[in-house]
Amino acid sequence: MAKVNTDSNLIAEILERGVEKIYPNRENLEKKLKSGEVLRLYCGFDPSASSLQIGNAIALIKLAQFQRLGHKVIFLVGTFTGMIGDPTDKGSVRKQLSREEVTANAVNFQKQAGAYLNFTGDNPAELRYNHEWHDQLSFKDLLGLASNFTVQQMIQRDMFQKRLEEEKPIFLHEFLYPLAQAYDSIVLDVDVEVGGNDQLFNMMCGRDLLKALKQKDKDVLTLKLLTDSEGKKMGKSEGNIVMLDESPNNMYGQVMSWADDILPSAFELCTFLPWAEVKDIQAGLSSGKLNPRDVKMKLAWEITRINHGEKDADASQDYFIKTVQNKEMPDEVESKVVPAGNYKIADLLVALNLCSSRGEARRLVDQGGIKVGLVNNMKTLTDSQAEIVVSPGLIIQRGKRQFIKIS
Fold first, then answer.
1. 180 by DSSP, 3-state: which?
2. Judgement on whether residues 295 and 346 belong to the same structural domain of the protein
3. S-S: 401 plus which of 179, 232, 252, 253, CB 3.0-4.6 Å?
4. DSSP letters along 190-246, please?
5. Strand pairing partners for 233?
């Protein structure tokens, strides 16, 4: 294993960049990092979707910073806790998933995380699945672990209090979620846990359990969240999330659709750019010396580069300039085979996988988001009940960046 790097500047960056708070305090963790001791740390990733997303990348970048200093990083996939569903910030119970569903969702997690962490070499990240130990617990074991917590501790959570006020049910398995996550710290015997600031309660439960059962003092490092201009966490429900399995063109374009006021935090949280450079960008945006459009293109390129490499990042930037800024047709358009004939536009959009449902298709047309025609002769559709004559060479355009050519 590589020697631990105790460089003061690098340690200061780890403890400052993107960090919301450190428990019990920054000084405690800083002392450990400067001691040269190899720390074991982990972050858990929820397989409730089939891809990691940009919010997960914030934690991956923080783990990577620790790994580069020589510390032992554990990439934990919640193949047990993911079946329960984390109740954090949820106004109603989450749908429970089967083992088959969470396992299928997590198939590509290591590959995606590999853009940030090294799973090979002298200090490889360790991949673990928490069903390995949770499946082995008996009801007796569960009662023993549960005896370390009180109902009062669990019920004080904000979302539970809100549900009580709204007379919405709180299910017992939701109470047990923090306990299940806490047990991960026991099995992994970690020194540090990393997670978003919305995970503070769950992580502190792990700290309490580790202290009670192993007399070990775990540090908890909470990270800032990437939020939109209204302070809402970016996510699938908000329609502004970037999944890490997106194609390079889509990833670049989605970042370009972010509001300008997200840029300062996005550079801090979602890139590996040097900390000094990030601060310069933030200062330039604040003073008005930097053009937000140019800065956003740099951000989109950097995020695409991390996940897909420089070649694809360059190509995606060229594609965006051509199709969005210059409003030109891309040189290469994806082709799909559709039998010739007359189609309702909503049916055609679903058949081409440009929309997931007819309802979505009709809304998109009503909003002016669909164009149909031939090269250099594209027209915006306004009638969601329109019937389209499909023949070879016809081009369907969704939004600014998606093109399908009928072949």
1. helix
2. no
3. 253
4. -SEEEEEGGGHHHHHHHHHHHHHHH----EEEEE---B-TTSPBP-GGGT---BTTS
5. 227
Is there a domain that residue 233 lies in? no
pTM for this one?
Answer: 0.83
CATH number at residue 384: 3.10.290.10
Considering its fold, how many domains does the chain have in total?
3
* Coil vs helix vs strand at 304: helix
Q: Which domain holds residue 216?
A: 8-225
Q: Would you give the distance in Å from CA 152 to the centre of its chain?
A: 32
- Considering Cα of 270, then 274, then 278, then 279, what sign does the dihedral take? positive
Record the tokens describing residue 24, joined without a space: 């019990």
pLDDT tens digit string along 164-194? 888 888 888 888 889 999 999 999 999 999 9
Q: Do 309 and 353 share a domain, yes or no?
A: no
CB-based contacts of 355-360 (< 8 A; 24+ apart in sequence):
355/398
* Residue 231 maps to a domain: no
Residue that the structure tokens 């669990």 belong to: 154
Question: pLDDT for 255-281, tens place per residue?
Answer: 998 989 999 999 999 999 999 999 999
DSSP result, 43-73:
EEE--SSSS-BHHHHHHHHHHHHHHHTT-EE
The two structure tokens encoding residue 84: 């329960």
Contact 18, 79 (CB under 8 A): no
Q: What is the pLDDT of residues 60-112, one digit of tens each?
A: 999 999 999 999 999 999 999 999 877 766 666 678 889 999 999 999 999 99
Task: Report the side by side order of strands in the sheet with 334-336.
Answer: 334-336, 402-406, 395-398, 370-374, 377-380
Residues 6+ apart with CB under 8 A from 145: 137, 179, 182, 183, 209
